[in-house]
Amino acid sequence: xxTSFSWPFELLIGWRYTRSGRRSxxxxxxxxxxAVSVGGIALGVAALIxxxxxxxxxxxxxxxxxxxxIPHIQIFNVNGQALPDWRxxxxxxxxxxxxxxxxxxxxxxxxxxxxxxLQGVLVWGVEPGEETQVSQIPEHMVAGSLAALKPGxxxxxxxNELANALGVTLGEQITMVVPSGSITPxxxxxxxxxxxxxxxxxxxxxxxxxxxxxxxxxxASALFRTGGPTGLRVQTRNMNDAPQIAxxxxxxxxxxxxxxxxxxxxxxxxxxxxxxKRMMFIILTMIVAVAxxxxxxxxxxTVTDKLADIAILRTQGASPGSIMAIFLLQGAVTGFLGTFxxxxxxxxxxxxxxxxxxxxxAVLHTQFxxxxxxxxxxxxxxxRFSDIATITVASLVLSLLATLYPSWxxxxxxxxxxxxxx
Length: 422
Fold this sequence. Notes:
The protein is of the alpha+beta class. Helix content is 55%, strand content 20%. Residues 1-6 have low confidence and may be disordered.
């Protein structure tokens, strides 16, 4: 005894209608409109994948470069004063098994001058021997060494962009103007100090390369008159665990100290990126929606062209649900083809974006990402499976929604009226 498998007739007829435009000149225009729908969905999906991947890449690139400089967690006094017993606090922090390094720091703002050049800077006082535990700056030195910051020598390590702006190189001197000066009958007189450039770093993040100056911890304490470190920089095993570790540390720290994770140190920037990503997703999804709802016109024309076929199927016993399923399948196939063509194109571009952009910049003689504006000079891309899956599902759902009305309209066709003029 042999059995044979037969496909549902709705599937066979729906697939036949999908391909009929290619075999019938009479349906050539419908086939063209259907191809436009597929192309529109594909371009919309591809654009959405590429843009979201760039947003992800931009966020990841800037985050990683920030973490070359800033610690995973920063502990400081809420009133801005020096830590009264920073060594004891450091020992408390190091008891946490997730902590890999702790280093003291002094932070302040100042002006640096060389000749006619004047720049505002963020000054960090650091211990060179302990900085490797909490920062990757020592790994990004392009001249000199962080170890050259000897207490009492008043040396300074500058970011490469800051050094270029001042026009200084290794061994040259600059003047630092500290706002916490002396009060005289003539008013406040800022403090001036001559510093010698003993190192230059390049972490790849324009904001820090152009505004950060490092001095020895004792020298910074003397310049800003803090009397000691104003905080501790803490490194953890996993940067993603920093918020939870900060909460754990907060419970054992004195009440006047705050443990702030890196996500809070740059909270405004990261929130802005998330909002921009969400808005770009919504805007570009509208493009996919417009292309998907172009299926409405395609299926309406197909239904009009197939009225006689629908009537014959109804007289042979096909239910309205079966007729609706036929055209739902036709629209679903069109949406499927457009979606997965867009996914393939979008992934191809997203995974090879940097060489593509470099080629276009060379051909067009332009720069898409000015480093002074976007902080980085390459086009980052970070395609994520979760985003691609979300975009794929959204496109398929929109395509199916677009087929509902034409399919429902086809199921309402009355055989007698459809065959009246045949």
